[in-house]
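name: query_chain
kind: protein
chains: 1
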Amino acid sequence: MPYLSFESGQLDEKVKQKLIAQLTQLSVEITGIPKEYFFVSIKEIPDSDIAVGGKTVEAMKNELKKNK
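structure:
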């Protein structure tokens, strides 16, 4: 059974449902495997645990707020 894993920052429920539906549908179209066989996992990672260029996303968001 195919397993799809998606990792990101915080997402609202509507976005997660849309991701699940569209990732599944696209995978069905590409592979021809029925959608009932797909497992989809969404892992939300806190902004303090994601870094880009040596800075956490949390720190980058805080800097953007200060500069507004």
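note: The radius of gyration is 16 Å.
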